[in-house]
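Need residues for this backbone.
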């Protein structure tokens, strides 16, 4: 089983993946074969439909696709009552991001219980991208000299928060520091 986290975008998609997870009959996670990877996909297509196709092709290439036992964690867009929020909504960006999330879930025919859409305010609150990056470096035990795309950072941190809420985070965070396989 694997859990794939997506920070959707029509230009730069952040992603994170934990694979090799198993649970016993009591629901206890076995992380002995767990492996992390993450990165960012630069989407080069011009039309929205080709961008959707390109995103799922990246998921197939980098994450071996998604099966009905896998979980998808994706950031769900939210409307912000600000100048930037008005511009994004008017340009259709909010609806496009929701479309990306739903297209991925539908393309791989994921069962409803394995789809987890989370708004940014639910997984990180209202902190800035820089604070999220600082938390990423601290949690992952990586020196801040590395240049890691903010979309990849968001995908990893969203996945870590999701795992924390599912009560598998303390094990995963410590294992992540040992098994860093990032970009």
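Answer:
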């Amino acid at each position: 089983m694997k859990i794939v986290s997506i920070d959707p975008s029509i230009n730069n998609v952040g992603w994170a993946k934990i694979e090799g997870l198993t649970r016993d009959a009591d629901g206890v996670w076995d992380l002995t074969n767990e492996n992390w990877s993450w990165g960012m996909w630069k989407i080069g297509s011009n039309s929205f439909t080709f961008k959707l196709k390109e995103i799922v092709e990246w998921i197939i290439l980098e994450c071996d696709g998604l099966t009905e036992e896998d979980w998808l964690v994706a950031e769900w867009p939210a409307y912000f009552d600000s100048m930037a929020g008005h511009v994004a909504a008017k340009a259709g960006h909010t609806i496009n991001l929701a479309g990306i999330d739903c297209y991925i879930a539908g393309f791989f025919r994921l069962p409803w219980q394995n789809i987890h859409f989370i708004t940014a305010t639910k997984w990180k609150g209202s902190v800035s991208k820089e604070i999220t990056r600082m938390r990423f470096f601290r949690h992952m035990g990586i020196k801040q000299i590395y240049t890691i795309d903010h979309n990849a950072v968001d995908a990893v941190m969203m996945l870590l928060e999701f795992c924390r809420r599912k009560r598998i985070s303390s094990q995963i965070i410590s294992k992540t520091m040992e098994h860093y396989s990032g970009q």
